[in-house]
Amino acid sequence: MSILRLRSNPKTLGDVNMVTEELKNLYYKRLLPIEKYYSFHHFHSPSYEDADFDNKPMVLVMGQYSTGKTTFIRYLIEQDFPGSRVGPEPTTDCFTALMYGQTEGIIPGNALTVDPKKPFRHLDPFGNSFLNRFQCVQMPNRVLESISIIDTPGILTAAKRKLSRGYDFPAVLRWFAERVDRIILLFDAHKLDFSDELTRAFGALGGYEDKLRVVLNKADRVDSQQLMRVYGALMWSLGKVFRTPEILRVYIGSFWSEPRQMCDHYHLIELEEEDLLADIRNLPCNAAVRKLNDLVKRARLVRAHAHIISYLKKEMPTIFCKESKKHNLIYQLPVIFTKIQQQHQVPAGDFPDCTKMQEKLLGQDFSKFKALKPGLMASLDKLLTTDIANLVPLLQQQEVRKKSLPSVLDGEFLGTFRRGHYQRNPFKALPKDDESSETDFDEWVVEKYRPKYDEIFYNLNPNEGKLSGTKVKEWMTTTLLPTSVLAHIWRLSDVDGDGMLDNEEFALAVHLIEGKLEGHWLPRELPSHLVPPSKRQSTGSDVE
Question: Does domain 57-282 bear CATH number 3.40.50.300?
Answer without folding.
Answer: yes
